[in-house]
Amino acid sequence: MTTLTDVYRTPLGLLTDLYQVTMAHGYWKTGQAEREAVFHLHFRRHPFGGGYAIAAGLGQALDYLAALRFTEDDRAYLATLTGADGRPLFDPGFLAYLGDLRFTGTIDAVPEGRLVFAHEPLVRVRAPIIQAQLVETALLTLVNFGTLIATKAARICDAARGEPVLELGLRRAQGVDGGLSATRAAWIGGIAGTSNVLAGKLYGIPVRGTHAHSWVMFWGDEPRAFRAYADAMPGNVTLLVDTFDTLDGVRHAIDVGRHLRASGHDLLAVRLDSGDLAHLSIEARRLLDDAGFERTRIVASNDLDEHLMSSLRDQGARIDTWGVGTKLVTGNDQPALGGVYKVGAVADPDVDGGWRYPIKLSEQPIKISTPGIQGVQRITRGGVLVGDVICDALATAPGARVEAWDLEDPTRGFVVAGDAAEPLLVTVMDGGVATAAAASAGDLGAARARAAADLAALSPRTRRHLNPQPYPVGLDATLHQRKLRLVGEARARVAAELAARDAEVGS
Amino acid sequence: MTTLTDVYRTPLGLLTDLYQVTMAHGYWKTGQAEREAVFHLHFRRHPFGGGYAIAAGLGQALDYLAALRFTEDDRAYLATLTGADGRPLFDPGFLAYLGDLRFTGTIDAVPEGRLVFAHEPLVRVRAPIIQAQLVETALLTLVNFGTLIATKAARICDAARGEPVLELGLRRAQGVDGGLSATRAAWIGGIAGTSNVLAGKLYGIPVRGTHAHSWVMFWGDEPRAFRAYADAMPGNVTLLVDTFDTLDGVRHAIDVGRHLRASGHDLLAVRLDSGDLAHLSIEARRLLDDAGFERTRIVASNDLDEHLMSSLRDQGARIDTWGVGTKLVTGNDQPALGGVYKVGAVADPDVDGGWRYPIKLSEQPIKISTPGIQGVQRITRGGVLVGDVICDALATAPGARVEAWDLEDPTRGFVVAGDAAEPLLVTVMDGGVATAAAASAGDLGAARARAAADLAALSPRTRRHLNPQPYPVGLDATLHQRKLRLVGEARARVAAELAARDAEVGS
Predict the structure, then answer these.
(1) Chain-chain contact of B7 with A176 (C-beta, under 8 angstroms)
(2) CA distance A200 to A179
(3) Angle made by CA atoms B283, B287, B291, in degrees to the nearest 5
(4) Distance CA A427, CA A124 (A)
(5) Is the pTM of this model over 0.90?
(6) In chain B, which residue's Cα lies nearest the Cα of A337?
(7) Which residues of chain B make contact with A330, given a CB cutoff of 8 A?
(8) DSSP letters of A287-298?
(9) What residues in A contact B213, CB-CB < 8 Å?
């Protein structure tokens, strides 16, 4: 039986941008296909104007890589593509090569659930360049979206200040698997449960839910609807009270609560889904307390996000459980993480050290690539995160005191000093085979625990939502100096070419 | 072999919110499961502040309905769920009932690609209430997302004023199927092609693409990289020119263009992906024209959407092909359509006419449900859309001149007068079986043609992006008067109850 999660375990070779396939064809035709290269996946800005992100999506990415294949059907499709000259775009020999292609590379990655910061490699791919290129798009899709939603969930759970958050967004998700993957990532980010039954089954996430307005409309009035529900499922009674009038609805719920108590059960909660949630929750709390239903919880929902939740708390709202849908599963104010995938090194036996380090220029320093094979060393002091250093992975990892240089202002050097250091990336795939570490790196329960632990170890100054204090992240001396040198050389080459063109025009 | 589109053809019974299953359980326990009900899927606000939407997602929804089933595995999972009392949430008899459940209802729906407006039913479900309720979530997911992205695509294609738009968003999509479904919907909305190879294969959409920055970085400089690419695929040469310096890159591309011409090919395009696209495209055009490459196109990309594209056009940008990614496939400024699914009628042999019409109140008129079984009559004059009337589907459909009442201001009546009228909804599933009309309603090529035709028939005043003129949509006399009456009765009942409670407290 096929399920949605199986999708990532099926050959998705064509789940890529066409330019990856045309480049792959180019590498193959020029005899470069098998040359090793190292790519890094990173983002340049923290989502939602925040100060951090939570890595997610790796488990799905590893499933995808392990299953990567171009089926006969896929190759038959590629054979139909033509260029502007009407001739086939791809050589039959290349398509045969694709038929045998498997992912044989090495993946070093940040385990799901760990805090990550702008510029850091979340995934490092070392593989024959043809493979590293073909997998770019899917890796970006999976890691961008997972990381976006895990981060949004953490922010929303922060705004709930320890009260449970339920994710209710499937109906507004971007496609079926948009919904499932969002629930998976939100679970890593800290939600307490979901309405999404399939996510509950596939990922072991607690599922929650009671009834909709339609239940009340079907029965015609709340007394009949609430009573019918309570009789059918007396152990799971949360009543939605706003079909006609919220506070009248609370009174009807209390009536049914008394009926439930008579049979040894209780009214677990009432749910408010419209109107002035601050006022209505305060009044509902008063009615419930006055009637002796102090333990009955108040669940609130209606286009909530971390900002509205904070505002409701400021107004003294008496909300015990937060239902968050659309704005959690889509990211709302930022529906995509802008992760990119850049080549940092190309194997070259003619070069000292065996690696050539390409560079890409830009008018914006933040968009200039970082040449090298990159790791990340995370420095802590007394268990508290004090800074991350992106370091040359071919050198010995630095200790707890490191000089670093800012990526957005390369003139600014600083020292990260703590009492402990650990590498952030772990090897999760080696020669195309998942390592022992992969199971934990992609395990949902472990990921959720890592997110909670990392968030607890993050300074509240960086964790806050408004104008967070930037967390120190820099390049180590090797990467910084190499980058400066290569940027200088590339700019000089461009300037010389432009001067030569001008001279040509002048002559 | 499993593919992503097959997913919709597999049993996705659990792809729903838990409250649908608890309500289903409640209907089953109270002996109401098989009672027929009619639900309508509609949205309340046009997305992106615009004046229209384009229906999409129906084809996927019909696949889902035809395959609906709760597998043994699904039922085993449901059997593990417990209430707060620790007892199983669901009766074994109910789970057995679910095992036999198939969708046996009737679906009337707006064919994909047609223009739709706020308040209109996009999908009408008539089925035993237990079925109608269980399918709510998935129908909303599929139709909300498809409609959102088809609409965004139409707006972006509008801003391109006839020049082709390529969709490049897979890497920033919300999950794998978020990407595929977005491409599918964008094709309906008018894009000319996509980078998404799997979407090309599965949906027959033209695929486009050439090379990334990494290709240039691999070869170390543009002359070598461009030449290698041109030699490998001379019939498909679009060169990305901004790895180091955009205008220097254009000159390198021209050099390779001369080389291509010498072998009977040509430089199809250059692509700009960063910097001041207005200025750079004008300068690139000048360089290309001066060198005799007047037919070489300029492709531009970099976080484009309809607003930025209009601004670039206003600045005189010389862009021939627009590459749009993130902001198209996620909806960006509005990443979810707020479609809802409301019960309009419940079969009741004791009621005159056989249908009872439930209502939901709200402080906002726009959120009050519309009791009845609803169709839509679209009125045109000389082929131009002049207004839609939501009408009682049990009565004879009105002709080309209809009195209607505003849904947001029920005091406002108006007349829609044209020379032709057609029903917007067609029966696509009857007794759980797809009708002959379903094939066309969900066919992508036909949907794309319908979108183009409907957009051409829409007044530019409504089609414009900024402050569009509202398109006339109203309720017919039957629905309007029934709604007023039922709202009045429900409000009176609530008021009487509140008064009785007050009297109780006072006594």
Answers:
(1) yes
(2) 12
(3) 165
(4) 9
(5) yes
(6) B172
(7) 174, 330, 335-336
(8) HHHHTT-TT-EE
(9) 342, 360
